[in-house]
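Appendix B. Raw example, untouched.
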Amino acid sequence: MTQRWSENQVTALAPDASSLTAARKLAGKWSGTGWCDTALWGLCAGSGKTPYQTIVDLSGPAFRCSCPSRKFPCKHALSLLLLWAGGTVGETAETADFAAEWIGRRVEKAAAPRKNRAPSAAATQQRHERVAAGAAELDTWLADQIRTGLAQTDRSPAAFEAVAARMVDAQAPGVATALRRLPAAVIGRSNWPEVVLGRFAWLRLLLAAYTKLDALAEPLAATVRAHIGYPVTAEAALAEPAVRDRWVTLGMRTSEEDRLHTRLSWLYGVRTGRWALLIDHSHGSPVFSAQVPPIGLVAETDLHFYPGAAPLRALAGAAGSGAAAPDTGGVAATSGAGTIADALHAFSAAAAADPWLESWPVLLRAVVPTRTGADWLLAEPDGTAIPLVEPARPWRLLAFSGGRPVTVFGLWNGRRLEAVSVLADGEFHDAGPVADATHTAVTAGPEAASIALLGTGRGGAALPPLPEAVAAAAAALPGTDAAQRLLEATALEMAWARGGYLPVHADLPAAPAAEDPRPLLPAAAADRLASLIDSQPEYLAEWFAAAEPHDFRAPDRLVGQLLEFAARDGELREAALRLAGTRGRWLAEWFPRWHPLVRRDTAQPEPSADTWRLGLPPERIQWLAALRRRDPAAARETLEAAWPRESGAPKADLLAVLADGLGPADEDLLERALRDRRGEVRRTAAGLLARLPDSAFTARMSERATAWLKCARTGADEAPELIVDIPETLDEAAVRDGFTDGTAEFGYRWNGQPDRTAARLRRLVATLPLGYWSGPLGSPRQSVAARVEDRFRQPLFDGWMDAALVRRDIEWAAALFAVGTPSNSAILRRRELFALLPAAEQARHLLRLDASWLSEIESLLPAVARPWPDEVARHLLHLFEERARTATRRPGAPGTRPAAHRSLLHTAACHMPPACAHAAETLASRCEDGDWTAALNLLAHQLHQRSAMLEELT
């Protein structure tokens, strides 16, 4: 049965970004959609009377559409696939007639017998002669490089490309590929001579084997031809005897080069214990045939192995029962490979048969990821360990393990293991990419590399010291050329070292992660969360809010991703850490960059006082904040005692901790902070003192306001006038209370010059108790109506907004919001004032605005509680409809197209109640403007997606 693709798989098919954008806009134009087996079809309304017939063969994938587009796939096929991936295309028992006809022709074509593509004897002989001539040239070139010294070798890609091109001409593409990859493998490596000499010796051994091809046993000869680059047809592979087994997919890797995507699938025979590698290609997109079961599933099928001394690559033959449920128990019960010793023995046997083998699949059933210095290793319970190719995300294996043994599938190259997948909690998971994709184990020893670096033609003709077993074989090597002997001896030593690797010892983690008894996040919701973190973070706030009442724990595969997200997102950090739970806390202890994220259980002891004395600034602030929550007086006394010794930028952050539970007892310390030499510390202290209405600081500010601000009334019916008279020169006490220059901080200007008086006015107004104004000016609404010189109107309002927002005064917020702001620079502050208003007042204001106020609505909607009230959402849809009508009546009029309201439409998709999806679809069906129809259909589709997102949590 074909499994639904993810949205990422679909988007990867798009030939360009515009096609994908156009495809998303078609969400509401489909009818007659369906899905059966590997066929997907639908009818999409276009500009003509006849809808376009779109068909997708999911087994290819292949596409057919009656539209005139020359893009492949077209926007209609992409749109249909997006709907199917989103779950909105229903499965049917039969395929639609127009789709069945095309699918049937494809099946007949695939079943037709293939022509014999075997080359003639003359062509085979001609190719052999060309390869032999190219091999002789390359052999001479390799010896020349060693003779003159690797220090003289041009290691640039261009230099190796020239040699590789000659190998292509000689019809040895496998050799050409090895040469082209060599420059990337040595960039930035201090041991590059060992890598270059190792690869040269590998090639020398291959060329020597090719010269004796006729004398080799057929399996080894087939192996040599495969490494040279001789093609093997599928018919030749299918002619090999079939091996029938229950094949479980243990790992997959996908790569891309020049839009050619390649998928490697490693299968394990449950009954035979054999390994198989299936290789699939897909041009333009990473969507492959569904014939290979997903990772962790099994299929009863025949495999035909390509001929070779260590056969691994195979082709699928006749299928049996197809994909089944996970069969990890069968894998675990199979005799054979399982320990590190077994894995090393299996590789040794394979490498003995195929000396050019890069790696061999191994299954380790009870290993624990651990670290020794900078190296990551997999260790068995007794400490026997092998090193890992450095993972790009080392936390992934650790998260699955939690310090306990797990089963790991990987590729052993003779020196390091590349982890491919891991079996945890009865399910296989991808182990993630490696940090060094060019890592190779085909490296020579340092002594041989030193000789090659200097060059055998400069006196370094003697072979390096070799192990006894290798030295005996090296002594029997024919020939007298020192360069060739060095290459051949190096090949022998590498084969001996890779095949005879001895494991190391490693210490296991001291304690495994504690168990988390909370319910596991449902699988669909976990997949959704991973997708949101990667590509749609705007939906995460709603997702975390909906998940919080359930108190889920994240699956182990997401714990590291949640910690990465928590490290960069302060707003949702606590929600992410709560979901990561105990496994997240255990994992964070392994990586210093995550140490500040560690949240301790209440049952665990708080960090000791050593954290306060010796910890890093973030740890000290966290410790003081925890103490402040538990014992405010003790936190204040601790900070007072350390205050004379504190310095640097964290000093203001430590003082800011007092904001939690601020009270009169904190006044003395805050007054001391006013005398600090750091401006940030003084500003923090002044801000906290302003929140204490009975403090001496507030009294001093009130006295200054009385002296510097005068209120004049010219008539009973006229608004009072505020007269500002702030002196140019301030006394030392005023400077200590925060009245510095302020021009750089606030940026006020008058007559083209920085306005210091305006900055001081804002500072004064912001620190005054709001109740102060009831005397000279009256209520908040009367105060904001007061007359004031134009020069001081902006700083006066800014100061009032500062005070209202800090004290969260609803009456003042309403008065300031109602009168507006003196300039557009305060639009974000205006939104903050709107957020303080009661929900009913917010709704009343928004409902009074018509379509000409869409910009005002867009600026205020982020302050409304989410999801929005139903009446607000429907009012916005009504305004969209009005704007769509205007676009129809006045084509091309500014501000009428959906593109002019792209941000508002996106905000609506994120925060409108999902239940409004049907209303949006109905509205789209009534629109006569095509762009608005597409925009509203897209909005409806996004609302449906949010609805599905929330349903997955139940």
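End of appendix B.
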